[in-house]
Design goal:
The structure holds two protein chains of two kinds. By secondary structure, chain A is of the alpha/beta class. Helices cover 36% and strands 14% of the residues of chain A. In chain A, helix 6 packs antiparallel against helix 7 (181-204) and helix 7 (181-204) packs parallel to helix 13 (311-322). The relative contact order of chain A is 0.10. In chain B, strand 1 (141-142) and strand 2 form a beta hairpin. The longest helix of chain B has 35 residues, at 75-109. Chain B has one domain (23-353): ABC transporter involved in vitamin B12 uptake, BtuC (Orthogonal Bundle). Helices cover 70% and strands 1% of the residues of chain B. Chain B has a two-stranded antiparallel sheet. Classes of the chains: A alpha/beta, B mainly alpha.
Amino acid sequence: MDALILPAPKPAMGRGFSFARLTLVLLLVMAALPACQATVLAPQPTDQVPEGGWPRMLVDDEGTTIEIAQPPQRVISLSPANTEIVFALGAGELLVGGTDFDDYPAEAAALPDVATFTGVLLEQALALDPDLVLAAGNNFTPPGDIERMRELGLAVLVVYAETVEGVLADIGLIGQAIGADEAAAEVVDEMRQRIARVEAATSAVPQRPRVFYQIGSEPEIYAPAPDSFIADMVVLAGGEPITTADPAVFSISVEQLVAQDPEVIVLGDAAYGVCPPAVGARPGWSSMTAVRNGAVRPVDDTIVTRPGPRLAEGLAALALAIHPDADIEPPMAGTSLCPEGLLVR
Amino acid sequence: MSTGAVGSVTATGRVGRLPAFARRPLLLGAAGLVALCAALVAGVALGNVSIAPGDTLALLAHHLLGWPITVSWPASAETIILELRVPRVLTAMGTGVALALAGATFQGLLRNPLADPYVLGTASGAALGAAVAMLVPIHLALLGFGLMHLLAFGGALVAVAIVYRLSRLGELNSLTSVLLTGYAVGSLLAAGLALTMYLSGSHLRQIFFYLLGSFSLSSWQQLVIGLPVIAVGSVVVISRARSLNAFLLGEEAAAHLGLNVRRERLLLLGAATLITAAAVAMSGLIGFVGLVVPHLVRLVVGPNARLLLPLSALFGASFLAFADLVARMPGELPVGIVTAVVGAPFFLYLLRRYRAGYEL
């Protein structure tokens, strides 16, 4: 939000205008306030681990305390990541509703859709009579919908991770919420081991290349913000992330990119048809080291960026895109990307 | 409404009314009431989840009339009907009344057929307010209204107040000035909205859907605050129908008729802005209703505000309630899309059918 630099309102615009001016100043001040917001949303460590008994008091990632009276039997997931987590904990049969973008595991797609891109279908949510709703924070589930569901008496746990560590904590949190503590511990343990192996392999490679992870390229080039989830992933995968330099800015200019000269370009939008040949042909891009060396590589962004149980696999995929020669077991077969070719022209 | 033959040219030059209703506004009023009741019944009976009509009737009778019926329906049906659908239908109706009345008022007052409730910067003021609210890390909820609703309401009022002051609307014959000022201030606020959206990050989707309007978060708490505001403003507007008729002749002529032009203009403008702001705060920016409903009514009964205003309110309410029903059947389509998709072609059809012309 530091980028908000506007000329101060001109004084002396005549009598009777002070009200309007005051309003404008107030609006600007309020627009500048969110700079202090980031810390509020940071995942809270759930240190009040219940000792396996019920009812349980859980603090979700927005700091709301919710009480879960007994092991939930009917769970609604409002994000694909939460759906994946519940399935990974072996509790897929508890799910009675999901989202219209659930795609993994395959049976998740068959769940009745309670959330769409527009928001939560409140009638559906109520009709399914859930005893636990797993929502996603940071506006993935619209905050108004979360509030309304709570008003209507539903137990809503909001999950939001800003870091890889936060995702592991969330898996633990969901495990506690559905009474699958042990399964969660196992999943988290396995993920930690996989992450540690990736880290060991990448740290064996001496250099940490400058990596540009392309989130999207239409209409602008979208890059990770500093300290964002993707920047965190790139660091763990043994790269030096090129970011937008401002946590509130999500696009980066080609000038900036040329100046920062990425040594590896990772195409997070490869699943949407953006492939290395087209990237190399963009005006100005041919001067970048990554393009000249043919180090433009696609990844499946679903596993790299979805804060769920496949994140460790995503980290492996990202690490292999950055260090193709590192000793890393390749991730589980994902979507086949860029059939038209991986070589930069 | 679209039945009957093409209207014939009358001596006064007002043309294109449907003969069946032309001299019988009461009949049209009755038709409006029937449509309103149909919208209420359909809006409560239908939805995203299907509930047996018998259950709906039984639980309504049980709760509203106190009939001793044994509870045979699931608890969720009760919540869906009483906490979601009924307040939602009523909010849609209240919003429809507000937008149609405000549209009719602004069209008459500014003598501009393109005027709608948002013409004086209401929309951009409310949108900017709502967008800014999403960026503010303060969690405020007051009687079912969040910061977003409050800032949208305030933004709409402040925008119109600024336009009013800047355009010297206090003086006579300033219609062009007020329209242009409204446009200029609106553009400035729209630029502010664009900047806010650019900076909004993960809030962008919410702002976007707010701009398209929705009733998905309607609740009794909102309704209890919003509906009285709309009711009071609507009564003020409808009670000034005679003044609005005088304004149709031009402000100078109205003054010669003995009308206190400044006071009446401020009253009408203030009440219309108030109900627009209340509607916007409850349900976001819903386009087209305020523009088209008054024109449709005018095509049928002519420009007399004493008929136009109450009938516009009636049809605005049922139109928006039906539009919302269409919007929520498939999921949660933004209702502004439905009003435009349904309304625009219908409006075009009527305009072509009665192309002999009509006057404001």
